[in-house]
Amino acid sequence: MVGTTIGTNAAWHGQQATYFIEDKDDHIYNSLVKAIVEHRLLPGSKLPEEALAETFGVSRTGIRRVLQRLAAVQLVTQLPKRGAQVATPGQDEATQVFQTRKMLECTNLPQVLAHCDENHLLAMEEIVAQEQQAHRDQDGAAAIRLSAAFHVQLQAIAGNQVLTEMVSQLTLRSSLAIAVYGSPWQQGCRCHDHSDLLALLRGKDSAALADHMVRHFDDIVANLRFNHDASEAPDFAHIFAEADPRETL
To answer: Residues in domain HTH gntR-type (predicted)?
Structure first.
């Protein structure tokens, strides 16, 4: 396939699964990103170095390096004398994240259509099928992961790795926004929207595909509820129980 392949088990930042085989820092980073994106670590959750170091069996220095990496991609906020916590996007930031995604993803659709072939379509159909099954199983974590995979994989078809990486990073921040402002039932995107987008992609209907993508993002923002209550302290031992260093997202 052309471009960066983002399958259902790929890492959130767009790298292939082998990226996480040996490096301990990368494993911890991967585990924390996954927990944040899947809403097991909610916005506002405190991330004390000592507790995380004990959970992962590493030094506080190692945890500090990982938290700095997460802060660099705006998933974590670090405050002097208050430590680190999962970032909580404000209303303006949340809205702007989706507006930016809409601009990038809609603008790139002509290139997606130009490069799309049957293999791409089959890969997209597999993601949609798994996403629909996750919704039937009420598996919120999988639904969120597969929703992001759909959007990143769609953009990856065009072969623009820089844009694909940007969309991949924005899906992380989108998940934070949904965790803060989404309705209790809001787990990723509505999967029937993705089925409709895929049908338009297969039919190569450029205008209809762009219109539907615009409505798709507008609907997501319209369903956000801009109020937020502080989350309870997370149970790291439970969240990261039996984490496998070879696990991929």
So the answer is: 22-89
pLDDT tens for residues 159-177? 999 999 999 999 999 989 9
Q: Report pTM.
A: 0.77
Closest by Cα among 153, 114, 146, 152 to 131: 146
CB–CB of 43/86 below 8 Å? yes
For residue 242, with 0-12 CB atoms within 10 Å meaning exposed, 13-18 middle and 19 or more buried, which class applies? exposed
Task: Indicate the range of 7-11, 98-102, 151-155 predicted with least confidence.
Answer: 7-11
Instruction: Quote the distance between the C-alpha of residue 93 and its chain's center.
Output: 16
pLDDT 10s digits, 194-213: 999 999 999 999 999 999 99
Chain length of the chain: 249
Q: Answer whether 1's CB lies under 8 Å from 119's CB.
A: yes
